[in-house]
Amino acid sequence: MAVGNLDAFLERHDVVMVGYRGIDGSVVLDCPEVARALKNTGGNLASEAALVRYGQALARCAESFAAAGVDLAGYNALETIDDMEAARVALVYDRIHLLSASYGTRLAQ
Hints:
- The structure is a single chain.
- The protein is mainly alpha-helical.
- It folds into two domains: 13-27 and 71-109, no CATH class; 30-69, no CATH class.
- Helices cover 50% and strands 0% of the residues.
- The protein has helices spanning 6-12, 32-39, 48-67, 77-90, 103-108.
- The chain is elongated.
- The two termini are 23 Å apart.
- The mean pLDDT is 85.
C-alpha cells in the first residue's frame, strides 16, 4: 500500500473514532474565562499577575462545572484510556493499529 492511499487502507481496516471526555461528548469542558485570562497577560504568560488571573479563572470554571453537577474527577487521562479500551472490547478487537496525532498518539499508546 502506498503512503497516502486511503482506499487501500480502508479495504483492510475498520476505522473507529473515539472522542475524548470533555471534548466530544454530552459534556464539553469549555472555559471561556480561562481563554480570556490567557489572552490578557500583557504578553507575559509567566508573570505573577498572569498566573494569579489564570488560577482564578480555572477556579471559577471548576466551581461552575461543580455547580452544574459535573464531576471533574472523571475527566482525566486514565478515564480516557479506559474509554478507548472499552470501545476496543465492545467491538471485539484483539489488536488495534493506532492512527492519531499529538497528545492522542501518546495517550492511545
